[in-house]
Amino acid sequence: SSGINAANGGGGDGPQQPAETKPAAPTAKQPAAAAAAVAATGESKEDDESEETPQLPLGTSLESQNEDLEIMMMLHEQECLINQMNEAYKEFDIELVKLRKDKIQLDVELKNGDLRIILLFEELLLLKEFEKRENLLQEALSSKLSDRDEMSDKIEELEEKLSNKKMYMEELQENEKLLYESFTEQLGENNKFADFLTKVFKKKIKRVKKTTEMEGDSDESDSDDDFDSSSEEEDEDEDGVEHLDLNICPPGCSQDLYDATIVMREKKLDLEEAIQEEKKIIDSLKKEVDALIKKNKVISHGVKCAKNDLEAFQLEKQKKMNELDVIVTLNLDQIQFMQNGVLPSDLSSCLVFHSTGVNQLASRIKELQQEKAHQIRKFKELKKSHIHLIKGRKAMQEKLLALDEKCQNMMLLKFGREVDLKKLENISTNRIAEELKETIAKKDSKYSRKLNEWDVQISQAKQRLLSATRDHTSRLDTLNELTKDKQDLEGVLDGKQKNLGGEYSGQRKADLKERQRLLQLVQLQAQEIDALKDEIGILSRKDGHILPPTQTAVPPLPPIGGHA
After folding, report:
1. Are the C-beta atoms of 312 and 130 separated by less than 8 Å?
2. 342 φ, ψ to 5°?
3. pLDDT at residue 225 in the model
């Protein structure tokens, strides 16, 4: 047993030394060294076993194999761990490079952000500097715009009033014309007192003003009345044929006609006074509108000046904003400004623009070259055509000279001297043209007569159609009335056949209908009495206007002893 233990201890101590010492130096050469150590231990082990085989039992070989397997497994595990460590090193380096790149990018963005903040701060200071002036200009512009709007509203309101007054004045003038026409119609033709009634109609009498007016107005009216009376005396003196009193109806003249003339004169004077008042109001409104239009022009000029000032201020502000320095970050490969193959230290004269602009400029060079070649070809073609036209012009000038000489020779042979052909053409008449004009005039007259005849025939046909239509409608109306009467009679007969004994029981229906008709007649007569009373009240006043009486349809009374 002691021999076995010594063998086990020796066998265990021998292979354990490499497993303890090799992980201390994790390098790429460790697997080979471990393999060499395993091979060496295996050889030494085989030598020991070969030397000690006769002395050891069978269990020692199995234990040594298990230990060798454990050693190999541990070496494989060591190799895997070393590979994992190397991969972790590589991943760490890659991530470190990525983080370094991200840090650099973030640093660039932060610097750009700082520069942008500085630029915005400078713009803010500049805007605050210009803010007070801008607010003052904006307030001035807004106040002037509000004044202009108010003025335009006033002008529109006054123009609307003016248009309404003009329409009302036109209505008054139209009423005055209608009044004159009605007066002439009332006089009729061949009236002996036409001149007298015309004077009465045109006479200007003293008008009684309303009590609500002021005393100054009454004084003015008195002065006007005095002027009117003087003008009347002048008119009477100018006539001087018959001195008749215009305030009294002369003998032989109809009193109704004279009274109607007096009433129409009152209406005429009312219309004239209303027209004069409307003229005064229209004149005052026109003056107000003109004054407001002038003020509006001044305000509009002020608005225009304020807008110009604000635009000039905005341009100045934009100019100051454009003078601020803007920092642009560029890569070295984006810089194309080189001097002798070297980047200059001063880049103040450089121009920064987009790369697409460079490509467009390069393509534009080729386009311009093509256009230049096309224009050169076109110029050559135009030059050839110009030369050809010059030759043609010379040939035509020679031909014109020859024709002028031939024309002069022919004029000398025919007239004996040179004659102006334009004057000759104006003097000489064209017979063919005159004949054509005569034929055209004849045909025009002929066709115009035919057209007139056709127009007459068309108007006659229209009259016949109208009369036939009226006749047809009247017949249709009579037919409708007859059918209605027929239906009523049929209904009455049917009712009588159904209620043969109803006539003798109680009050008859015909009596009820007759009573309703009498009640309606009484109501209508009461309405007519009220209307006549109103007309009497209107006629009792001096300035009353008479309206035509309303004619109400009175239902026909049933015949005496008739039945419905």
Report:
1. no
2. -125, 140
3. 45
pLDDT at 248 over 50: yes
Query: Distance (Å, rounded) from C-alpha 536 to C-alpha 539?
Result: 5
- CA–chain centroid gap for 442, Å, is 57
pLDDT on residue 33: 42
Q: Which amino acid is at 323?
A: E
Distance CA 139, CA 372 (A): 56
CA–CA separation, 320 vs 256, rounded Å? 94
- Alpha carbons 564 and 562: distance in angstroms, whole number: 7
Residues 67, 15 contacting (CB under 8 angstroms): yes
The conformation of residue 342, written as its DSSP 8-state character, comes to: B
Structure tokens at 362: 């390069």
More confident residue, 354 or 239: 354
Residues 228/205, Cβ–Cβ less than 8 Å:
yes
Query: Which amino acid is it at 557?
Result: L
Spatial distance between the Cα atoms of 311 and 319, rounded to a whole number of angstroms: 12
Length of the chain: 564
- Angle formed at CA 562 by CA 558 and CA 563, multiple of 5 degrees: 100
CA distances to 180, 211, 497, 503 from 494, rounded to whole Å, are 63, 72, 5, 14
Q: What angle do CA 34, 35, 36 make, to 5 degrees?
A: 90
Closest CA to 475 of 485, 483, 487: 483
pLDDT at 244: 63
Q: Nearest 5°: phi and psi at 339?
A: -125, 110
Query: Would the pTM count as exceeding 0.85?
Result: no
Report the first-to-last Cα separation within the chain, whole angstroms.
Answer: 163
The helices-and-strands tally (H runs, E runs) of the chain is 10, 0
| 3-state class (DSSP) for residue 142 | helix
Contact 157, 359 (CB under 8 A): no
CA distance linking residue 271 with residue 178, whole number of Å: 11
Rg (CA), the chain: 64
| Tokens matching residue 75 | 């070496």
Average pLDDT of the residues in 226-232: 43
CA 120/CA 127 separation, integer angstroms: 10
Please give the full DSSP string across 215-227, using - where no structure is assigned: HHHHHHHHHHHHH
CA–CA gap between residue 199 and residue 183 (Å, rounded): 12
**Do the Cβ atoms of 60 and 11 come closer than 8 Å?**
yes
pLDDT surpassing 60 at residue 198: yes
Q: Which residues pair with 342 in a beta bridge?
A: 339
DSSP labels, 57-115: -THHHHHHHHHHHHHHHHHHHHHHHHHHHHHHHHHHHHHHHHHHHHHHHHHHHHHHHHH
SS3 203: coil
User: What one-letter code names the amino acid at 274?
Assistant: A
